[in-house]
């Protein structure tokens, strides 16, 4: 399957997802351009997480397909989708709490290189100097080098999310999916994360971001798609979306 525009790295093509009688996603057609930051916003229950889960292979769409870089992802397992260059930062970080921050950040690079990772590899971590150096560099980038020897489980929620971002960056993904990257963070940590995500953008990484915090959305997004009731009700630049009466009615005037 191809897309009309060569710059499109991800195409969610006519995707539907039902849960029993509930239409969580209907007629979703979404095209994500290479190197851009594309935000998906919408009120609670709009279908945002379901959409991300379909993209990363955690949920099979009832109909339609997800195409990444010309390859159909639909039907692939989450780890296979990860291997082709799609990484996701979760709303709740998935980390190894009893390992140090540095070890956590090294693991995705080892898993990517070796195809899998088991805790048996732990003993060899110290010998992995190249990956170790890169992990330290990544921790420096996310402002967490000073915490590299702390146990990951002891970090604050904001630091866990920054560490998880470093874990994703170690995979050098072509597409980074961020599910509420600043949820639960203080305003200060939120602004640090915005700066960090801007820095990643300068490196040309494509990002899809789900976010309730409009400050974050309008600071980062090149394009916004608005979901409501499982459908895309508006799409455009931040300015276009901000001024769209349908959006104001469905979203901006609502609970958020
Ligand atoms: N596994 C599931 N089984 C049944 N219904 C589900 C399931 N996952 C999501 N839903 C329903 O699908 C709809 C969309 O949910 P989803 O979590 O995708 O919305 P969201 O936009 O991410 O919401 P929020 O902003 O609150 O995270 C909701 O009505 C939700 O209750």
From TrEMBL:
SMART domains annotated for this entry? AAA
Q: Which GO terms describe its molecular function?
A: ATP binding
The record, for CDD domains, names: ABC_Mj1267_LivG_branched
Record carries keyword Glycoprotein: no
Q: Which PROSITE patterns match?
A: ABC_TRANSPORTER_2
- Keyword ATP-binding in the entry? The reply is yes
Under InterPro entries, the record lists:
AAA+_ATPase, ABC_AA/LPS_Transport, ABC_transporter-like_ATP-bd, BCA_ABC_TP_C, P-loop_NTPase
Where are the membrane-spanning stretches?
A: none
Ranges where the ABC transporter domain occurs: 10-254
Q: Which UniProt keywords apply?
A: ATP-binding, Nucleotide-binding, Transport
| Alphabetical list of SUPFAM superfamilies matching this protein | P-loop containing nucleoside triphosphate hydrolases
Gene3D superfamilies, per database record: P-loop containing nucleotide triphosphate hydrolases
This protein is called what?
Answer: ABC transporter ATP-binding protein
- Which species? Maritalea porphyrae
**In the record, what lineage is assigned to the organism producing the protein?**
Bacteria, Pseudomonadati, Pseudomonadota, Alphaproteobacteria, Hyphomicrobiales
């Amino acid at each position: 399957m191809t897309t009309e525009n060569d710059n499109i790295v991800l195409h969610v093509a006519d995707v539907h997802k039902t849960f029993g009688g509930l239409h969580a996603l209907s007629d979703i057609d979404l095209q994500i351009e290479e190197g851009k930051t594309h935000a998906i916003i919408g009120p609670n229950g709009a279908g945002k997480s379901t959409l991300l889960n379909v993209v990363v292979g955690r949920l099979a769409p009832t109909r339609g397909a997800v195409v990444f870089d010309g390859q159909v992802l639909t039907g692939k397992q989450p780890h296979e989708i990860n291997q082709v260059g799609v990484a996701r930062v979760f709303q709740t970080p998935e980390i190894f709490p009893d390992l140090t921050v540095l070890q956590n950040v090294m693991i995705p690079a080892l898993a990517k290189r070796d195809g899998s990772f088991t805790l048996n590899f732990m003993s060899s971590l110290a010998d992995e100097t190249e990956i170790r150096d890169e992990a330290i560099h990544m921790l420096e980038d996310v402002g967490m080098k000073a915490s590299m020897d702390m146990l990951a489980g002891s970090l604050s929620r904001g630091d866990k999310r920054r560490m998880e971002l470093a874990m994703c960056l170690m995979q050098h993904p072509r597409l980074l999916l961020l599910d509420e990257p600043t949820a639960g963070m203080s305003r200060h940590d939120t602004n640090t994360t915005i700066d960090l995500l801007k820095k990643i953008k300068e490196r040309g990484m494509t990002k899809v971001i789900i976010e309730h915090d409009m400050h974050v959305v309008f600071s980062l997004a090149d394009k916004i798609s608005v979901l409501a009731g499982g459908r895309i009700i508006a799409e455009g630049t931040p300015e276009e979306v901000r001024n769209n009466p349908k959006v104001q009615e469905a979203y901006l005037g609502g609970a958020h």
